[in-house]
Amino acid sequence: MKKAFLLDKKVVPLLYDSSCVAALEGTENLLISVRNVFKVVNCRSLKEELVVGEESGEGDNDNVPSITAMCGHGPTVVTANSTGAIEVFDLSFSGSAKSVKSWKTVDNCVISCLILGGDKVIAGFTDGSIRIYDLNGGFCTHNLKGAHGAAVSALAISPKHSGFLYSAAVDGTMSCFDVSKKAALKASVSHHSSSVTSLCLGEDVLLSCSRDGTVTFYDLTMKSLRSIPTLQSVESCCSLGNGEFAVIGDKGSVLKISINGLIGSSPQIPNSEASLNRIFYYPFGLVVTSTDHMIYTINGDLAVQSTFVGNLGEITDMAISQSGSLVVASGDSNLKIFESLDSLSCRLLRGHSANIVCLSSHGDFIVTGSRDCSFRIWTIHRENALFIGLGHTDVVSAVALTPSKVDGEFYVATGSSDLTIKLWRFSAINNSCQNMWTIKAHEKDINALCFLSNHTLLSGSQDKSIRTWSVEKGAPLQPPFKGHRRGIWSLCRIDSNSFASGSSDKTIKIWSLSKGECIKSLEGHENSVLRIQSVPGTNILLATDSDGLIRLWDYQKSVCLASFDEHLDRLWSLSVSSDAKYFVAGDSLGVRTVWRDATTEIAADESKREAELILEEQALSNLILRKEYSEALGKCLAMDLPGKTLYLIQKIAQESDLCRCLMILSNLLKDSSDESIERLVKWAQDWNSNFKRSLPAMLVIKSLFMTFDHSKLKVVCMSSGELTQFIERHYRKLQELITASHMVDLALLHL
Q1: What torsion, rounded to 10 degrees, do the Cα atoms 392, 394, 396, 398 define?
Q2: pLDDT digits over 72-93, tens only?
Q3: Which of 20, 531, 559, 564 gives a 20 to 30 Å CA spacing to 100?
């Protein structure tokens, strides 16, 4: 029986402020920030190389200054926060970052952009000013007040041509300063009618991008050479070398341009709900970020190589395909296919016009239900849906696939907030789908569907009932199953005659189809049970709840075997692999955890520990037989055996005088760690509460005072409590016994 799972991977969303992203020049890394924390992320794998600062939840650090701008080159990273402070970090320390310098700039003014120019830090402010600081000293070398009449939006510096500094603002103006000559103004132009979002230097030209939909080429003296319309609001640009540039904007495509005009463009990359906002050039290709926290790597042909999901949003449902891919529905209209369970790279299957709320899979076929009132049938091997199903008048809130195909056909069931269930027969041969029947099934929203077999369909609803339906006839098979006090959230098949249900009433119920009644009720969850899944080939049920807990149930014994607490919010999704070696859970914060079956591993560890314990006990018995009491006591302490320790001290006290016993205990204490001494003191405290065991306790206490001075006693006895609590009581009882013995002796003397 599979009954033990261990956490294998925890995949946390790459949360970041989409407006504050920068390249760590000279590396393959990207700098991203979230509030007061910045992260160094590898662009090839999207793995976090380094996190600088302490991450906290929403609202935890409202009063902590957030990062507003970043830049970096090699091991040096410079950040600016919302109070106007600049901080310099050195990343050359293994696995960590060291803050080497920080300084305050201007009160009540935010740094809007930041660049490095050799040993200079150049900052543009929201008041239109520009200041240049010495990187090593932190002092201001140039103060360009009134450089612009609006917030500075972009900066660029040319080490060539005597260090010309170029700046742009949200009012569309641009300026050029000669940094080598006390930042004298060389030129000022206004060719754009909207905010200039990015500046980029080529070999002999300067490129400006604007939200007015144009890019403009200049020579290095700011003389306009050519303007090119892009038909989109341009947000960012980068140099590709050889006089070529790449630009992106709100239409979601990458444009390759030169001073001669448009060279090429990519298909639209993000969905219609998002736009591209940052682009960076790396030797392996382009890296593009979007406003919906997606990160794309793009090759020289402007084709997407990899798609990384930064923030999944709320994971509403997931499934593990037959090929081992992870299928995820979360936060938007795109179906996401991850090649492995812990991967950040995915393929996007587009088609729905609103959020996907549920999915079901069998083999490599997937069915999705959406808020756009439609369902779609997919295969993970194709980008487009095999079939689009229409007919519901409200959200498709539940879908299910028959467990097996017959002659290349299988049934699809869809349930909706319009209170109806529709059954469809899909042919995988010609990708056709036929509606077999439609029926009003419940009085409230349908939350769950499950095929018990190819002939029986189950439905669970917010109306607290579970109904069974004939797949062939579309008619109820028997009266509704009732017993839950609140709505049903999840159903799962156990076998052809039994199934389980999870409800908002915090219970899981096991039902018998033949008996038409509940046969078991599993209680223990402290909040709504949201998802349940059976583990194939076992008596195990996995269940998630709105507290973020995963519980492992033995439904035959009605026992909770384990509880896993790795999530902080509602767990809407749960999927078990067909071989039962893994299961995956996803929560409303976008965090997903991968758990592996560790039954064999844990059983082997337990067997090993039992074998080791038997050998240790045998060695202890041999020491006692040889009367090597000092070593025996040391082994008892190491093995955490208070009963055996008590027996040994009593045995030593009986076989020798108390002085020898104290000497043995004193030598033991000298050779023991503080942890072992504290353990012995705690045992002595327990023994001291009982008169029959008080002598060993007194011997331990006496040996402590003989062995250690006051300072050491204070360290090892701090957590032991009041050791002398029962000592006076024991002495009074001893005195009473001595007095009574004297009276007996006197009486015997007069006989």
Answers
A1: -110
A2: 999 999 999 998 999 999 998 8
A3: 20
Phi–psi pair at 106, nearest 5 degrees: -125, 130
636-672 confidence digits (pLDDT tens): 888 888 888 888 888 888 877 778 788 888 888 788 8
Domain carrying residue 277 = 230-310
Let me know whether 414 and 471 are in one domain. Answer: yes
24 found inside a domain: no
Spatial strand order of the sheet with 174-178 comes to: 152-158, 164-169, 174-178, 184-189
Give the DSSP per-residue string, 431-453: TEEEEEEEEE--SS-EEEEEESS
- DSSP 8-class letter at 258: E
Most confident option among 34-38, 342-346, 470-474: 470-474
The whole-angstrom separation of Cα 43 and Cα 300 is 16
Q: Is residue 37 part of a domain?
A: no
Q: Are residues 583 and 618 in the same domain?
A: no
Select from 329, 265, 340, 266 the least CA-distant residue to 573: 329
**Contacts of residue 448, Cβ cutoff 8 Å, sequence gap at least 6:** 398, 415, 458, 459, 460, 488, 489, 490, 491, 501
What is the three-class DSSP state of 710?
helix
Q: What is the pTM of this model?
A: 0.75
Total structural domains within the chain: 3
The residue to which tokens 């001291």 are assigned: 688
pLDDT tens for each residue of 125-169: 999 999 999 999 999 999 998 889 999 999 999 876 667 899 999
pLDDT at residue 479, rounded to an integer? 94
Phi-psi region of 128 (alpha: psi -120 to 50; beta: other; left: phi over 0): left
- The CATH number for 265's domain is 2.40.128.630
Q: Do 638 and 493 share a domain, yes or no?
A: no
Alpha carbon distance 490, 505 (integer Å): 12
Q: Can you tell me whether residue 226 is helix, strand or coil?
A: strand
From 509, 506, 575, 572, select the one nearest 536 (Cα to Cα): 575
Please give the C-alpha separations between residue 651 and each of 257, 646, 662, in angstroms, as whole numbers.
92, 9, 13
Gap between the Cα atoms of 396 and 356, Å rounded: 9
Cα–Cα distance measured from residue 22 to residue 20, given in angstroms and rounded to the nearest whole number: 7
Distance separating alpha carbons of residues 73 and 69, to the nearest angstrom = 14
Shortest CA distance to 492 belongs to which of 522, 515, 472, 525? 522
What is the DSSP secondary structure assignment for residue 294, as one 8-state letter?
Answer: E
For residue 161, tell me if it sits in a domain.
Answer: no
Do 457 and 528 sit in the same domain of this protein?
yes
Residues in contact with 140: Cβ distance below 8 Å, sequence separation at least 6, in sequence order: 105, 131, 132, 133, 134
- Tell whether 397 and 439 lie within a shared domain: yes
pLDDT for the residue 635: 85
Quickly state the pLDDT bin for 718 (edges 50, 70, 90). Answer: very low
Q: For the residues of 325-336, what is the DSSP string, one character each?
A: -EEEEESSS-EE
User: Which among 310, 345, 371 is the end of a domain?
Assistant: 310
* Residue 733: pLDDT band with limits 50, 70, 90: low
**What pLDDT, on the 0 to 100 scale, is given for residue 742?**
65
Q: Assess contact for 218 and 199: CB atoms under 8 A.
A: no
Chain centroid to Cα 552, Å, comes to 21
Q: What is the pLDDT of residues 330-377, one digit of tens each?
A: 878 999 999 889 888 888 898 999 999 999 998 889 999 999 999 999
